[in-house]
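Hi, here's the filled form for the chain we discussed.

Project: internal
Contact: R.S.
Residues: 154
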Amino acid sequence: MAGRLQGGSDPVAVAMCVAGALALAVATLALRGIAPGKNLLMIVGLQMFVGAATLAPLSWWLEAGMAARWTQPATLAFVYTTIVPGVIATVIWFSLVRRIGAVKAAAFHFLTPCLGVGIAWVLLGERLGWQDAAGVAVATVGIALVQLSKARPA
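And the returned structure, exactly as it came back:
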């Protein structure tokens, strides 16, 4: 990611990404006492709502006077972001936790950058280099080591 960040990234956009990650953390902590049961999608919806409420003041401050232009790419990006990482990934996460446990499931978070780079390559035509391949290899080995360390002896 270093090469991508040094390539003229907008510091405000990077700060907004950090704020989004913090909003996700606030939303997760706000709902930590709720056990995922039959109402999993309701919990995901509440988490999204808390995250949106956390980001709302920053959004109103930074985007004063701006109006959203709902073009087809913007609408598709919004729908994708809401459904794939917001709902589907969360359902997969809770399924993993239920099936293999929280420690082993947490290792799969390290796939996020790998998947992000892969999706950017497929959908946006981003270039992939040796650094990207090395990062994917390190993440893959790390996940394998965590999974193997927690494996029960045969």
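Let me know if anything looks off before we file it.
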